[in-house]
Design brief:
The protein has six helices and four strands; from the N terminus they run ααβααββααβ. The chain has helices at about 5-10, 15-20, 45-55, 60-80, 115-135, 135-140; strands at about 30-45, 90-100, 100-110, 150-160.
Amino acid sequence: MNNEYFFASYMSNEELSNSWTGIVDIGSKDAVFREAIATGTLQLSDEGIIAVKSGSLKGNVREISTIASIQAVKDTPRILPHCHSIPIEGCSVNWDIEGNKLRCTVTVRTHWRTGVEMEALCGVNAGLLCAWDMLKSVEKDSEGQYPNSQIDGLHIVKKSKGDQHH
């Protein structure tokens, strides 16, 4: 697809000539240790929290949602078009119950030319969305709505670059 044709519908010629529609060239950067930790929560009903602890109709919520998180980390460049394919060296997914919130924390590590923040954020999002999907039957009210369910607080806890021992 010709980018000029695609963007012409909502960008002026001046905006088109000054826009960057490619992927950032990181070829001249050195590969160094990189780590990002992201977290977020899913607000649930009391019944939802019980299902997280004991299992939902669809299975073990944390176990299956961990798989979704890891898949999302690896597939980030397919979801976010300006993200580079990064050789992921490590990924961990941790779950905590905090009152009526299910917290997902994803840590991603690599030695590469660009950071892994988007990979960590994608992992958290996918994990929480998978958990919500698995808990829909207990989270819906009598009208089919989700009055208690809400994804919240998505953010980068920490980003590291350089020596992995500091």
